[in-house]
Write a structure and sequence with these properties.
Length: 403
Amino acid sequence: MSGARWYHDDRLRYGVGIEDTFIPQEKPGHRKLDEYELTQHYARWEADLELVAASGAEFLRWGVPWYLVEPAPGRFDWTWLDRVAEKMQQLGLRCIVDLMHYGTPPWLDNSFLNAHYPERVAAYARAVAERYQDVWSDFTPLNEPVVNAEWCGQNAAWPPYMSGEDGFVKVTMQLARGMVRTQQEIAAVHPEAVFVHVDAGFRYEGETSPVSREFLEERRFVALDLITGRVADESVLGAWLRSHGVSPAELQWFRDNAVTPDVIGINYYPHFTTARLEKGVMTPVRSGAAGLRDLVELYSARYGGPLAITETSLVGTPDEKLEWLRDSVAELTALRTEGHDLVGYTWFPFFTLVDWLYRFDHKQPDEWFREFGLVDLVRGADQGLERVPNAAFAAFRELAAGR
């Protein structure tokens, strides 16, 4: 849906998102993780989009499965995507297109460490933006870069299976280059494009070890600071990156090619965004609306606005979901009254997701269902996953309608 800069109209818009993690690479002990496949979205996408529209959501965060759309380098199959884009247009849904939600195609050797990754991802993004420029105008170049770097570069859980701080830095630098090149290439073919950069909102409590809390509270901003050209050679982040082999010339490249997000998205989950790190073990700490406020104030002070909450939800009873929906919206309303430029609220995911830990065992997907959504997935006798709206669905619809 093309159109004016929607985030300038001084409204808080309500949206939802469909979980879209794609890790197609397999190896012993690590099976394929494709959330669309596991939740039967590929089979039920049309009804899912109609349900999104019925929720009253004005926008949808939804991702393109790069590995399926570009099955070989430079060869695109638009068949399914054409139908999805047409349906979104018919329903009047503004799609904030997730171009990169963690996984790369199997043909890209060594995944993010491939020397050609930044240009490959940018070329794919350009092709998507050019083909659908009359339908889609809003793009997220890469979702949650720090989470991506942790799982792919620090914890060796996803390709390219790097570990430690050295791996984290190597992956982060490639992700950030790809984000810059993606925004540049989309802007070249779609001058009216809106860029919504999405960060995971890390928070920490207490003293941390072996990494200091003070450093972790800087590191969470590393990707966004890089792409916006904010990392000086002698800053905390600059010195840390250089200690892991990043050259002054590489940091200068980001300053010379700095891009500006139109909207900065913050992802916040009240039950696990805040954590305590002790002896290398991260323990989630519940933080509620106070943690949401803290992050909005931090991002607002560091980057300005506009800002959006691009993911929030929780696993709990219907009453607990209703309580978080009302508490989080009330906190954002207060923050807007105080002058923070908040333009969007996204319940994410819209329906049940399959926990990423599914990838590492042989249990059935149902055993890894996590009921974050406004809609629950219920397995029928025919093995189909029925979509069943819960009590929070109706409450969300009332909020989105302004009632």
